[in-house]
């Protein structure tokens, strides 16, 4: 949003601050939930100021939102969508998009009509746990009357979009110009607080939450206990098998995360009644696009599909999404969540934990009664919500896949890991250097400090990968050493043994440990081994390196033969003359160029194509070889060397 077009930019600054204040507390809003707005003048290209509604963009995180996260709308155009006009729910979002005053601004909140209907300048909306605990009780309306009396207006649940906007507009009309309250509580949904200043709107919001907390026995908001959580007991193979099954149902690879220290895992051995209450349904329909309509209490996907089909009863089959749980609390797996990205699996877990808190707190008013299934289903199937879900999912050819790259802190391994990450994969990156941990701040990055010569270290690291992501799809052994040149007459046993240990024996160990997970990869496991030109064309003084890479090549060929029946493809990349790695210092390059009597640039391009081979090129090649393009290829040897006469 372009601030200079707002006649009073200070209003937008106040809105941002108030929005961040709400977003900082997960007990109020979670993962893109909640929204806010301000009414201000907007100066058009003609220099004339018109009334605008500046509303939070759909899905934007209130914790860290900036002015660019809000959409300026023509307020008069938005209000024309309110009663007496009748608008089909699917027509609301196109109309709001057309009302934007800045075509580069984000998609407006699905609750924009409520913000337009309220007469106050500032409007703040949250799905506060304390409010939901009151309204999601045995008699939510009676509980709301006891808690707030006449200090807030209480509305029955209405679906976001036109139905809720119309309900609020009718309520405002009934006030006949005299506004008796500064907050509205919508049963099973949350609170809208409003005032002519951001400070007063925040105060109204805080007062509404404080009244709810004071009425609940859980007013000190203790966290759910994790004391009985069965930490570190999840069987990685069982988790990988579950991921394989659920990805087959979904039709796309998905990630599965085991939350061994979550209070939901602890409920299995603690307050089982609370777990059963939590599984009754979501605390607000707005959470359904994250968690699905309910928490599953076992990993029986057929039983879940039957229950989900009943929940969707009456809908045309063509409109029904794939039936799989987003959250499961199971005796064997513990508490696991499912999503397209690690951020999504984490969000699902957090929302379920907050649902459990709401369910426990609702006992103060007779017990937990979640919103009606028909309200939840209506919101889940609403096109605007499904579009929001699609927007937050990651893309790329490797979306939902899990890759492991060794030697990932530098050189070729680093380029491969980053290329797979860029193409959507969740990447576990191994290296002996601690720098691998912080190479990326993506939630899809897991940097692990691993000495590949230690089998126990490899096994522990793979277990962590599976607990965090759910399995393994792509394996790229890229770790290796190129020892200083020594002729056979000078080659000592220790150097020989160390080179073979790192370059080939560690890969044999990795193959043994990774195979049980690769065979469960939803689209088939893919292994791309980084060997060398020296396999086909060794040189003097490189006996240890050349022999180790030749042995690695044979190991890969045997894996291709043995694993084809498991649907695992194994291919080999043979690079040469990759000079942008730590191995090649400027001094060494100058020395080698002088040896051949050429310039450094000419030395880098001493191949048939006279081209320079880079780590990034190898990274892109490996990512392609891990994609569906190579679905029918296994046992291949792919050189990337610009053309080498000795190899050809």
Question: How would you sum up this structure, described in words?
Answer:
- Helices cover 41% and strands 14% of the residues.
- The chain is an alpha/beta fold and 648 residues long.
- The chain has four domains: 3-215, 3-Layer(aba) Sandwich (L-fuculose-1-phosphate Aldolase); 236-392, 3-Layer(aba) Sandwich (L-fuculose-1-phosphate Aldolase), CATH 3.40.225; 402-577 and 614-640, NAD(P)-binding Rossmann-like Domain (Rossmann fold); 579-612, no CATH class.
- The strands form three sheets. A seven-stranded mixed beta sheet has the order 3-2-1-4-7-6-5.
- Strand 1 (35-43) and strand 2 form a beta hairpin.
- The longest helix is centred in the C-terminal third of the chain and has 26 residues, at 493-518.
- The two termini are 58 Å apart.
CATH fold call of the largest domain: L-fuculose-1-phosphate Aldolase
Global outline:
elongated
Q: Give the DSSP E fraction (strand runs of 2 or more residues).
A: 5-15%
CATH architecture of the largest domain: 3-Layer(aba) Sandwich
Spatial separation of the terminal alpha carbons = 58 Å
Unreliable parts: none
Average residue pLDDT: 92
Multimeric status of the protein? single chain
- Give the biggest beta sheet: 7 strands, mixed
Total DSSP helices: 23
Structural class: alpha/beta
For the CA atoms, what is the radius of gyration? 29 Å
CATH superfamily of the largest domain: Class II aldolase/adducin N-terminal domain
CATH class of the largest domain: Alpha Beta
What order do the strands of the largest sheet run in, or round the barrel if closed?
3-2-1-4-7-6-5
The share of residues in helices is: 40-55%
Instruction: Count the beta strands.
Output: 17
Structural domain count: 4
């Amino acid at each position: 949003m372009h601030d200079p077009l707002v006649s009073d930019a200070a209003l937008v600054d106040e809105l941002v601050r108030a929005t961040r204040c709400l977003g900082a507390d997960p007990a109020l809003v979670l993962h893109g939930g909640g929204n806010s707005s301000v009414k201000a003048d907007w100066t058009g290209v003609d220099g004339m100021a018109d009334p605008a509604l500046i509303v939070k963009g759909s899905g934007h995180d209130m914790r860290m939102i900036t002015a660019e996260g809000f959409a300026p709308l023509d307020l008069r155009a938005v209000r024309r969508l309110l009663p007496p006009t009748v608008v089909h729910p699917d027509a609301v979002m196109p109309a709001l998009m057309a009302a934007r005053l800045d075509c580069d601004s984000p998609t407006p909140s699905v609750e924009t009509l409520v913000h337009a209907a309220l007469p106050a300048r500032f409007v703040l909306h949250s799905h506060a746990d304390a409010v939901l605990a009151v309204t999601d009780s045995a008699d939510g309306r009676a509980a709301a009357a006891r808690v707030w009396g006449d200090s807030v207006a209480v509305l029955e649940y209405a679906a976001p979009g036109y139905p809720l906007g119309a309900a609020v507009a009718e309520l405002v009309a009934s006030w006949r110009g005299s506004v008796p309250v500064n907050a509205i509580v919508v049963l099973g949904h949350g609170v809208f607080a409003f005032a002519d200043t951001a400070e007063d709107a925040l105060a109204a919001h805080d007062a509404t939450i404080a009244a709810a907390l004071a009425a609940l026995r859980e007013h000190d908001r203790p966290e759910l206990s994790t004391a009985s959580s069965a930490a570190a007991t999840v069987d990685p193979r069982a988790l990988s098998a579950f991921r394989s099954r659920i990805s087959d149902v979904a039709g796309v690879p998905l990630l599965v995360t085991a939350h061994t220290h979550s209070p939901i895992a602890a409920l299995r051995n603690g307050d089982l009644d609370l777990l059963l209450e939590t599984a009754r349904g979501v605390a607000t329909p707005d959470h359904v696009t994250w968690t699905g309509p309910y928490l599953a209490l076992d990993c029986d996907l057929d039983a879940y599909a039957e229950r989900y089909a009943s929940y969707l009863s009456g809908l045309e089959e063509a409109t029904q999404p794939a039936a799989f749980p987003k959250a499961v609390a199971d005796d064997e797996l513990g508490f696991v969540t499912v999503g397209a990205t690690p951020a999504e699996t984490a969000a699902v877990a957090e929302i379920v934990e907050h649902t459990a808190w709401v369910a426990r707190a609702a006992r103060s008013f007779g017990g937990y009664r979640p919103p009606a299934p028909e309200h939840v289903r209506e919101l889940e199937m609403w096109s605007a919500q499904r579009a929001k879900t699609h927007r937050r999912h990651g893309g790329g050819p490797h979306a939902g896949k899990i890759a492991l790259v060794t030697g990932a802190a530098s050189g070729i391994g680093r380029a491969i890991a980053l290329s797979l990450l860029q193409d959507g994969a969740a990447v576990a990156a191994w290296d002996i250097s601690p720098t691998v941990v912080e190479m990326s701040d993506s939630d899809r990055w897991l940097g692990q400090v691993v000495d590949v010569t230690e089998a126990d270290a490899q096994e522990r690291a793979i277990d962590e990968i599976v607990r965090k992501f759910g399995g393994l799809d792509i394996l790229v052994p890229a770790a290796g050493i190129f020892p200083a040149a020594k002729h056979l007459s000078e080659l000592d046993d220790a150097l020989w043994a160390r080179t073979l240990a790192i370059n080939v024996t560690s890969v044999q160990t990795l193959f043994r440990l990774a195979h049980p997970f690769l065979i469960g990869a939803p689209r088939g496991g893919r292994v791309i081994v980084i060997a060398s030109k020296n396999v086909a064309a060794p040189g003097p003084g490189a006996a240890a390196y050349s022999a180790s890479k030749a042995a690695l090549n044979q190991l890969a060929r045997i894996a291709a033969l043995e694993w084809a029946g498991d649907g695992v493809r194994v291919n080999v990349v043979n690079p040469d003359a990759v000079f942008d790695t730590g191995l090649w210092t400027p001094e060494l390059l100058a020395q080698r160029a002088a040896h051949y009597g050429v310039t450094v640039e000419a030395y880098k391009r001493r191949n048939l194509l006279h081209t320079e081979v880079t780590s990034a090129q190898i990274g892109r090649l490996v990512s392609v070889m891990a994609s569906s393009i190579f679905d029918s290829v296994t046992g291949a040897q792919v050189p990337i060397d610009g053309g080498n006469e000795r190899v050809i």
